[in-house]
Amino acid sequence: MTVPSAQNAPERAWLVLAPLGDLPRAEVDHSLDELRALADTSGADIVGHTVARLRAIQPATYIGRGKAAQIAEEAQAANANLVIFDEDLSPAQSRSLTDLLGLRIVDRTQLILDIFARRALTLEGRLQIELAQLRYLLPRLRGMWTHLERQQGGIGLTGPGEKQLELDRRRIGQRINRIREQVQQVGRRRGELRRGRRRHGWALLTLVGYTNAGKSTLLNRLASADVLADDQLFATLDPTTRQIELPNKQACLLTDTVGFIRKLPHHLVDAFKATLEEVNEADLLLHVVDASHPRVEEQMAAVAAVLKELDAHEKPMLTVFNKTDSERGRVQAARLAERVTHSVAISATTGAGMEQLTQMITDLLRERVEHIFVKLPASEGRWISAIHANGKVLEQKVRGKHLHIEAIVAASFAAKLDPAWLKDG
Q1: N or C: which end of the chain has fewer CB within 10 A?
Q2: Same domain, 276 and 353
Q3: What is the pLDDT of residue 153?
């Protein structure tokens, strides 16, 4: 048996939750489960946890020195070499806790950034993650140079920490500016692609939802695609677009996006804005919900919060209650559907409810398309080609000097046709 080297062995992580006030036990358990899932996704070996309930946040250490001493004792007894907090720590708090615990500290934002960095496959994804990481790192540089600051005043060491700190800040600032420019270029290319889709009159549908709600599985089901659909947090980072056809023969483009999560780091939302523009540009959002999850309403609220931050909370939306192949999923979907205006219950895994889903999408997009019958002179080759390029031709027949075409086209395109060419079906 091959024994993994210490360098490749997973880090032994101790998890820390620090809820404020009298948070119900069920909510604490949910937060702990989610933190455990995040740590597991990052590849850590979880060796234990501490729930440190707080009356107030301590400015210097977040949790206070007494609780820090308790965590240090428990974590070191378990041979942990990493402590993961479910909170966002300030640079000063992170430095203080590192000194008090004698272990490396990672907060929630840093953990999620690490997962994203591991999962990003495309150049675009890697650039956006690096941008978020650098923005996170910049205010924390001072703590990385404390070993030099303690030596200030020694012979040959006058101010080396400050000089190195300023040099690093400048380099990181320059790198951030370069990445911003590259991300903006990506955004412009995406804009050009979207304008091309608009010219064809295709409806744009975007999948949104909490991470691991089943968005990629649904994309695969609707588009007969093979997008990665792991049962893990943040399995999809890079947006994927596929063409689908609705029951009325209307062609649509369906885009899968990165999953949202409770307390999604602002650094990530900001860095991923070029990608998340797919949300703002959508004609219809499909909010995929894991109806079987015990904290389903909290997850729906977290998605709503991110959509509001993106200024997309007033977009037309269809709520898709997924994972109803389980008893809890069916019960919760039925209960929640009573207060959601447009919703449908499905199982992306089994395919149950797909017909109802596609019909509801068709109904919600009905005003965007027209079913036309045209009688065109054969000499109007340009318009014949345009109908084929901008719609779905259902039937085409030649009768004498005219071409009779039945098609589904965008309403905006139909308005451009000569009324004399239109006829009743």
Answers
A1: N
A2: yes
A3: 41
